[in-house]
Amino acid sequence: MKDRKQKRNYTYRSMRDERALGVYWYDRLWCLLRPVLIGVASLVVVIGILTAAWNRVYDTFLAPPEPDSGEQVIFQVESGQSLTRVANNLEAAGLIRSHTVFKYYCDFAGLGQKLQVGTYTLSPGMPFTEIADLLTRGDGNPLVRNITLIPGWTLEEFAAYLVKCGALEDTAEFLEKCRTGTDYSDYYYVADVLATKDAAKRKYVLEGYLAPNTYEVYTSATADDIIRKLLSQTERAFPADWQDRAQELGYTMDEMLTLASLIEKEAKKDDFARVSAVFHNRLKQNIKLGSDVTIHYITGVRKMSLSQSDLQVDSPYNTYLYAGLPVGPICAPSTDAIQAALYPDETYLAENYLYFCAKDPESGELHFSRTLEEHNQAVAIYAPLWKQYDESRGIE
């Protein structure tokens, strides 16, 4: 009897303990799942709110005004219009929902300064990003083009380039205006050239006065427009302090441009100042410059080995026949060449270097000498290379 009672008590306690354990396991699981379920529910609510907010923002500011529209609208961006003006006009034309959003997008994407003048076919169904991209790519009919005058180019080379790139139909008008220069006497430096006694002897009055650089010009620009565009930069390429320096050396602006043009043609940039020193030393001692590049300018042929007939051609540009500087510049000099003309190498000046010649024609490296004897020795070494170079190019 006692054993049965003890067994019932044990069974009761075991069931109570199992129920207690069951409740504890359920509570523990709920404690774990409750914050997760709350978090998931909260996230769903937040996503719902954000989605609703985004849809509202998109529909209000970002969506095309008429997403399903195929209507075509002619829209024009005119010269001088700011990004703000273009954005306002787009909104007024019903092509975007918000001029502010469009403007901020273009600024953020770096497109603000890239809008192209032109006439565009747009649609109220186009996304504003597509419209921005189209306005920065242009309408295929640009109003402007870039032209480049390379340092060392002659006016004839530049004229041929202008025809090749479509800026001019032919070279005739451009070269004639450059030859006389009379239409540009309102530029004081051109007026100074025209006032010299040798102006009529120049091949082109404006040779050396069109500043080398890259310029943006209208596609409708005439020869006169292009000349004036480049002439207007000449004073920037030869500023007032350089004019003072030229006067200090006893030369005019025109003479320094002429010297710089010889330097530009004779050497690479690293040798500009040394070549300048040689020319300055020869000018001071009234020794003929004997510059091959002046012969090249006369004949139009670049030869490393000049013949006696080349050296004897009668021209005011021939520095083998006539002492001093040639009658005018022979190309468009770079600012580096102008600076070298004004500030020759002090060591080469002091040591009285009077000669230089080319080494390997391909490299452009020069050999400098103080005396005629040293120079003749260098010529004997390098002359065969010059002849080979001319022969390889079919020049006799």
Q: Output the structural class.
A: mainly alpha
- The overall average pLDDT, rounded, is 87
How many H/I helical runs? 17
- According to DSSP, the number of beta strands is 6
Low-confidence stretches: none
Overall 3D form: elongated
Elements, N to C (H/E):
HEHHEHEHHHEHHHHHHHHHEEH
Structure commentary:
This protein has 396 residues and is mainly alpha-helical. It is built from 17 helices and 6 strands. It has a two-stranded antiparallel sheet with strand order 1-2. Strands 3-4 form a two-stranded antiparallel ribbon. Strands 5-6 form a two-stranded antiparallel ribbon. The longest helix is centred in the N-terminal third of the chain and has 61 residues, at 2-62. It starts with a helix and ends with a helix. The model has no long low-confidence stretch (mean pLDDT 87).
Blueprint of the fold:
Elements: H1 2-62, E1 73-77, H2 83-92, H3 99-108, E2 118-122, H4 128-137, E3 144-149, H5 155-164, H6 172-180, H7 188-194, E4 213-218, H8 223-231, H9 234-237, H10 240-249, H11 253-266, H12 272-284, H13 292-299, H14 308-311, H15 335-342, H16 346-350, E5 355-358, E6 366-369, H17 372-392
